Amino acid sequence: MTLNILFFSITFNKREESLQQAVRNEMVEKLYEQNKDRQNFVHHLM
Predict the structure, then answer these.
(1) To pair with 21 at 20 to 30 A between CA atoms, which of 2, 11, 32, 44?
(2) Rounded distance, CA 19 to CA 22, Å?
(3) pLDDT per residue over 25-40, tens digit each?
């Protein structure tokens, strides 16, 4: 009788953001929101 057992161990580590990356992500999010607001404004004018 043969018993084959295979185990996998997967771990996920949250990546730490650098200060520069966090500031950039915040700026991108802000620009995205401004663009979305502008699109809504133009859409309501039509």
Answers:
(1) 11
(2) 5
(3) 999 999 999 999 998 8
